[in-house]
Automatic annotation (TrEMBL):
SUPFAM superfamilies attached to this UniProt entry: Homeodomain-like
Keyword vocabulary terms for this entry: Coiled coil, DNA-binding, Membrane, Signal, Transcription, Transcription regulation, Transmembrane, Transmembrane helix
Sections of the chain in a coiled coil: 107-134
Domain HTH araC/xylS-type: 441-546
Native source organism of the sequence: Prevotella heparinolytica
Pfam families assigned to the protein according to its UniProt record, in alphabetical order: HTH_18
Segment forming the signal sequence: 1-18
Transmembrane annotation, as ranges: 385-407
GO molecular function, one term: sequence-specific DNA binding
Name of the protein this chain belongs to: AraC family transcriptional regulator
Length: 552
């Protein structure tokens, strides 16, 4: 009986450990297919691991998966935070440090920061040199990151316009790839197989970036033929059927761009159609839609399904501006101009400016600040043996504490005034609607009333069809009148209504902030925080805390 109980306890322990890893493993597989859903699962997974007690490996695995999930959702600052956390946690494991640097490289590549990418390549090279190759696992890691280092180095040179250096770097990387391909370590050979397809595609990009699309157009069909032969002969042992299809899709996209630049539009459209068929077969791949739309725009032949898909992508991703969204908006702007749709073109030009400003101001500047802070922290940890003079530390602490107390009290006083102002504004909104008649001159309040009738503004998939029917106006006409007469926009009205609803939930319930954000129509907690702070100069947490103090 005792033996039976011991066995049950052992099985229960194994089950609990499996449950501990299940959330992260599931998210790791999910984010490629459903990045937004994977992002929503991150916070519950973190709370679960935190509740059960962080283990070093669990924490490291969480930070790694969270970094790639945030990257796939275009949440650049969040991705960087997780990457920096990996570097700090992985000080004894070079593989973890290198994974963190890999995320930063992908982030720099997405943002077009090729100088930063070159600096990160040097860091990867230095960390790779510290890895010994005595164990098979260490040798596989060293081989993979040596190749990845050469890949990013070559890409940074190509995108910076240094075509000759990029070609030289590519040939050096290819020689290294061939050297590792004969390695007795199976994992090393598998990593070479994965990287070989990426280097083949990189050569096509070098030709196109260097102004030689004719060379790319001649090279890509041979590369695709070699890819097909390899798959027919049983594959490389590391790439599955879907992986081969995805490589073919990117080759077709590169071929389409090369051909259209050569003036061979019919062949370019044929290559784009091949990429399109594979694009619809698999989950959304990074930059695929923007690249596909770009081919059709250059060829001046846009299929209706691709145009509709691009417009849907634009509407669904307004809250998370990205480089791909900017590319799609630029293409849509060209399409509207060619079609003579002046209103749509003007609206899209404004969106292009907004997204471009967002990427270069908020994300890139924040990225630089965090990178700088990271360097300062690393420098601090390396030099922590040096002690500061005791009197200087004591003096600094006293000044900081006194300053913090002063500003804390001042902020509390200011926040109380802000809370009263916001609460009064939220309470007066219904009365204002009732007092003002629904006239043509009062379009903003008509819209607020219509949207409030059925709570349709609370849906994350908010659709303007119902509003257009009630007002008997098209969306662009509504936006035009709101801009001219009310100096606002439909998006601003919807956001304000959502924020008012969120204020009521913060006052009247104890729901967690993630749930309030979702119930108020915001796609992510980050968006909710940013909009709330921008509107009221208070965070949701501060607003709730002030409300609780008032009620006590």
């Amino acid at each position: 009986m005792k033996l039976f109980i011991v066995c049950l306890l052992g099985l229960f322990t194994v089950y609990c450990h499996a449950a501990d890893t299940l959330d992260i493993d599931y998210i790791d597989k999910l984010y490629v297919r459903e990045p937004q859903r994977a992002y929503r699962l991150l916070e519950p997974a973190r709370k679960r691991l935190e509740r059960e007690g962080w283990k070093h490996k669990s924490r490291m695995r969480y930070e790694r998966v969270a970094g790639f999930v945030c990257l796939s959702n275009n949440l650049y600052a969040d991705a960087l935070r997780h990457a920096l956390a990996m570097q700090q946690l992985g000080s004894k494991d070079r593989g973890n440090i290198l994974d963190g640097l890999d995320i930063q490289c992908q982030l720099a590549d997405k943002l077009g920061q090729y100088e930063q990418l070159a600096r990160l390549v040097d860091q990867i090279r230095q960390e790779t040199k510290k890895i010994t190759d005595r164990e098979p696992r260490e040798r596989a890691i060293k081989a993979y990151y040596s190749l990845l280092c050469e890949y990013y180095k070559t890409r940074a040179l190509s995108k910076s316009g240094q075509t000759d250096k990029a070609m030289q770097s590519w040939h050096e990387a290819r020689a290294m790839l061939n050297l590792f391909a004969d390695d007795p370590n199976e994992n090393v050979r598998g990593n070479c197989a994965i990287m070989r397809h990426s280097f083949d595609l990189l050569l096509a990009d070098i030709y196109i970036d260097g102004g030689e699309p004719n060379k790319a157009a001649a090279y890509i069909p041979d590369a695709v033929q070699e890819l097909n032969r390899e798959q027919q002969n049983g594959g490389d042992g590391a790439t599955d059927h879907a992986g081969y299809d995805i490589h073919r899709m990117y080759f077709n996209l590169a071929l389409g761009h090369a051909l259209v630049k050569c003036g061979r539009k019919d062949e370019a459209l044929k290559a784009a159609a091949g990429a399109d068929s594979l694009f619809h077969k698999y989950p959304p791949m990074a930059n695929a839609l923007g690249s596909l739309l770009g081919i059709y725009v250059e060829a001046n032949s846009i299929p209706q399904n691709i145009l509709s898909l691009s417009e849907d992508f634009y509407r669904n991703n307004l809250a998370t501006p990205s480089v791909e969204l900017l590319s799609i908006c630029n293409s849509l702007l060209q399409i509207y101009i060619r079609q003579g749709e002046k209103v749509k073109a003007e609206a899209m030009a404004g969106e292009v400016k907004r997204i471009n400003d967002f990427i270069h101001r908020e994300d890139m500047e924040f990225y630089d600040v965090l990178s700088e802070n990271s360097s300062l922290r690393v420098s601090y940890y390396k030099q922590r043996g040096y002690k500061m003079v005791a009197t200087g530390v004591a003096t600094a602490l006293v000044i900081i504490i006194v300053t913090m107390i002063y500003f804390h009290r001042r902020r509390l006083r200011d926040n109380q005034y802000l809370y009263k102002y916001v609460r009064l504004a939220v309470q007066q909104t219904p009365a204002k609607r009732a007092d003002n008649p629904k006239t043509e001159e009062n379009l903003q309040e008509q819209i607020e009333t219509i949207l409030s009738e059925n709570g349709n503004f609370l849906s994350q998939d908010f659709n303007t069809g119902y509003l257009e029917t009630r007002l008997q106006m098209k969306r662009y006409a509504i936006d035009q009148q709101l801009t001219e007469k009310c100096h606002t926009s439909l998006n601003d009205i919807v956001t304000n209504l959502r924020l008012q609803h969120a204020c009521k939930l913060l006052e009247q319930t104890d729901y967690v902030l993630e749930y309030i954000a979702t119930q108020s129509g915001f796609g992510t907690l980050r968006t909710f925080y940013r909009q709330f702070k921008k509107k009221y100069n208070l965070t949701p947490t501060e607003y709730r805390r002030l409300g609780q103090k008032k009620n006590q």
